[in-house]
Design brief:
Length: 65
């Protein structure tokens, strides 16, 4: 996969931490199917933080300086 990173390092760290917290809270507080859906959405947030590429940001033309 060829892509250009469009998420700065500070935001990447925030995305990973927020995604992990959202997944954990979704599974612990909601449980069941709702918790798994929240965790799946949070996995996308974690992935965009780890890879440094956000497809939604790319669609609106966001680029790093």
């Amino acid at each position: 996969m060829i892509y250009v990173k469009n998420v700065p390092n500070g935001e990447r760290a925030v995305r990973v931490v927020a995604g992990l917290m959202a997944a954990a809270l979704g599974l612990l507080l909601l449980g069941g199917m709702g918790g798994w859906l929240v965790a799946a959405g949070a996995a996308g947030l974690v992935a965009s933080g780890l890879f440094g590429f956000c497809p939604a940001c790319a669609m609106v033309g966001r680029k790093l300086k």
